[in-house]
Amino acid sequence: MTAAAEGQATPRIRRAVQKSLLQSEQAQGWALISPTFLFALVLLVAPILVVIAHSFWTQDYLTIDRTFTLEQYRIALTEPIYRDLLLRSLYVSLLVSVFTVVLAYPIAYFISFHGGRRKGLWLFLITIPFWTSYLLRVMSWKVILGYNGVLNSGLMGLGVIDEPSTALLYNTTAVVITLTHAWAAFAILPIYVSLEKVDRTLIEAATDLGDGPLRRFLRITLPLSVPGIVSALLIVMIPTVGDFVTPRLVGGKDGVMIANAIQAQFGKASNWPLGAALSVTTMAVVTAMAAASVFIIRGAARLAR
After folding, report:
1. For the ABC transmembrane type-1 domain, which residue ranges apply (predicted)?
2. What are 40-51's pLDDT values in tens digits?
3. Confidence category of residue 5, pLDDT binned at 50, 70, 90
């Protein structure tokens, strides 16, 4: 081939290669997710970077001193009030996650293995509470647990008490009860999806080999549903740490969580750097706790097998 012919063929080959790369599945996949990725990058990563930057600054009355400092992290990690709020938030989140999964698993199991043709109907019924506002559901629990609650009305009607009691309201117990109900469906759905993927022939084979219902559940169904349990725990655990509406409405002084302190710093206190440091510290601790939970659950599942 002459040099002139080779020079003419090179652009055609280059265009053919570029066209084949653009038409490949990988290129099409990147093109498909690029808008969503850029959207998430702008609206999620950018605000987090702004918060992290603020956490290294200092509030100087009405202005912000942008001199680099770790003072806000020292306050967030050493001040007893913030340390106690963070520990209480982690405690409440862990309790809510465990209670929600324990209550959600039997429901998901029933729908998956005994729902029959009505699986769709059962799932539809589970989503009905979410037709109303989250705030309305929290206020409903405030009515149930509080001054005008059903329990108080019943006890007063029976003459057990003379005045309404708020013993079940404005404490950590009220926060745990309300959050467990609020996030129940978010735990049921991933566990149900995981149970639907369990190969029924494995259960039939275990039955033929003489395993009873409990042994089949512990050796087959439960280990294979671990991904759904892990997903449910993470879905419930991560948002509940940062919930500030529920503690404010039903928690009272004894049920305040770290998110209420963060909201106060960005609000009335007007100390954005401290609020940012509290936010970053909480995110880091929650990430570590979530990773530890996944590690422990998967390790327990391997031992069960």
Report:
1. 86-293
2. 888 888 889 999
3. very low
